[in-house]
Design brief:
about 325 residues; alpha/beta; globular
Length: about 325
C-alpha cells in the first residue's frame, strides 16, 4: 500500500512592499531580512488570532491570568499602589565602564529608555515624557518594545512615541523589540528616531571615533546579525551594542563588543521584596535580569524598563529611566 502523502501547511505568500514606506528599508536590510521579518510577523499574528487554542495558550492573551493577577492585587490592597508605582519612575545615574574608550568620549552621557509600551496606559506615557524632559544627556538610546501587544494596530503606539519624542533632545538611536513590528520603523524614523536594524553608526568627538551598533530582536524573531554589525567595525576600535534582550550576552562578548545595553525583562516587574524577580522571560541567568553585569570582557546593563506589560502594575520593581556616563574601564 503506498504511503500517505505528508501533510503540508501552506504559508501565505510574501507581502509586496513595492511602493510602500517599507520599500525604502530593502536596501538597508537586504531582501531576505525584510521578507523574513514581515513573514514572521504575519505568521505570529495568524498563530495568535486564528489557530485553535492559540488565543489561550499564548501568554499575552491569558486574559484570565491577567484578571487573576489584578484580583489578587485588589484582595491584598496593592492594586492601586501597584498602578501608581508604574508612574513613579526612578532616575538611575550610573557610570558605564567601557574597555578601550577613547578619552574624548569620557563623560558622554547616554539616556537609555527601554520597554516603553506607550499604548498600555496613557498616564504612564505622560509620566515618562515629563521625567525625561528635565534630564541632561548627550544622546538617547531606545532598547525596544514600544507597543503593548505583539500584534495589531500601530496608530496608538505612534501617537505615544510622538509624545515621548517631543520630550527628548539630541540624537536618538533605537532597536526593535519582540513586541514591535518592522512597520513601525518608517513612521518613527519620520519623528527623528534612527533605527539600527543590524546596523552601525559612528560617533565622532574631537577626532575620536566610537561605534554604536544595534541588532534586530534576538528573543522572538531571532533576526539579530552580530556578524554583520561586528564586521562593520574596525578591529582596533571600540563599540557599544544595543540589543533588546540580554540573551545574546555570550555571543556579544566573543564578538568583541565592549559594552551592551538591553531591556526586555522589566526586571521582573512584579518582584519579591528586595527586587528579586519571579520571572524575567529571557534565556539568561537571573544576574542579567536587571542592572549592571559583566561577562568576560563585556560590560552590560539590563534596564528594568520604563513601562509595563501584560498587567499595568509594578511591585518591588520601580520603572526605570537610566543615564549612563561613559568612563574608561
Amino acid at each position: 500500500m503506498p504511503s500517505a502523502a505528508p501533510s503540508t501547511v501552506q504559508a501565505p505568500p510574501p507581502a509586496s512592499t513595492a511602493g510602500t514606506p517599507l520599500d525604502g528599508l530593502r536596501a538597508r536590510l537586504g531582501r531576505t531580512h525584510l521578507r523574513q521579518r514581515l513573514g514572521l510577523e504575519r505568521d505570529h499574528e495568524v498563530f495568535v488570532l486564528n489557530r485553535p487554542g492559540a488565543h489561550f495558550f499564548y501568554p499575552e492573551n491569558w486574559y484570565s491570568v491577567h484578571g487573576v493577577i489584578r484580583h489578587c492585587l485588589r484582595l491584598s490592597g496593592l492594586h492601586g499602589r501597584a498602578q501608581r508605582n508604574a508612574r513613579r519612575h526612578r532616575i538611575v545615574e550610573r557610570a558605564l565602564p567601557v574597555r578601550g574608550l577613547p578619552p574624548a568620549f569620557a563623560g558622554l552621557r547616554i539616556l537609555q529608555l527601554s520597554d516603553l509600551h506607550v499604548d498600555m496606559a496613557a498616564a504612564n506615557t505622560h509620566a515618562i515624557a515629563a521625567a525625561v524632559r528635565r534630564l541632561d544627556y548627550d544622546l538617547c538610546v531606545l532598547t525596544g518594545d514600544y507597543r503593548a501587544r505583539t500584534f495589531g494596530p500601530l496608530a496608538a503606539t505612534v501617537d505615544g512615541m510622538r509624545e515621548v519624542r517631543e520630550a527628548l533632545s539630541g540624537p536618538i538611536y533605537a532597536v526593535l523589540g519582540n513586541h514591535d513590528s518592522l512597520r513601525l520603523v518608517p513612521e518613527l524614523e519620520c519623528l527623528g528616531i534612527r533605527f539600527l536594524l543590524n546596523e552601525t553608526v559612528t560617533l565622532e568627538r574631537d577626532g575620536a571615533r566610537l561605534h554604536l551598533a544595534g541588532v534586530d530582536d534576538a528573543h522572538y524573531y531571532q533576526l539579530h546579525n552580530l556578524d554583520k554589525v561586528a564586521g562593520a567595525i574596525p578591529e582596533d576600535e571600540t563599540a557599544i551594542l544595543l540589543s533588546h534582550t540580554p540573551e545574546i550576552y555570550r555571543q556579544a562578548a566573543h564578538a568583541g563588543f565592549a559594552a551592551m545595553l538591553s531591556g526586555h525583562t522589566h526586571g521582573g516587574q512584579i518582584c519579591l521584596p528586595g527586587g528579586i524577580p519571579l520571572i524575567w522571560d529571557a534565556r539568561c541567568p537571573r544576574r542579567l535580569a536587571a542592572g549592571p553585569w559583566r561577562h568576560g570582557a563585556l560590560v552590560g546593563y539590563t534596564s528594568a524598563g520604563a513601562g509595563t506589560s501584560v498587567v499595568n502594575a509594578r511591585l518591588n520593581c520601580p520603572p526605570e529611566i537610566t543615564i549612563h556616563t561613559l568612563q574608561p574601564d
